[in-house]
Amino acid sequence: QVQLVESGGGLVQPGGSLRLSCAASGIPLGGYTMDWYRQAPGKQRELVASITVGGRTNYGDSAKGRFTISRDNAKNTAYLEMNSLKPEDTAVYLCNAKGTYTNLEFWGQGTQVMVSS
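Predicted structure:
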């Protein structure tokens, strides 16, 4: 059974930092592009950051300069380091794994991030 489990969300003050993790079981993340999305109430799901199997990264405009995506294939985990958080970053953050060599795709259940004073 494939599972992606996000963790690390919570309540943080504006300007603070959080590190999200996406731990996979049942698949080797080394063969998957890893994406972080976020979904805020009343808004469309938004791609935050992406990292390919080769380590190439891509960021949405809202994340550039503040967020860093990384992966540790040995730990089968992807990360999203978020700094200088703003209230508008409040959302459920979800990780997604897309197979590079297959058509398989998997989603985690999400972790809530709330930025508020």
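Summary: The radius of gyration is 13 Å.
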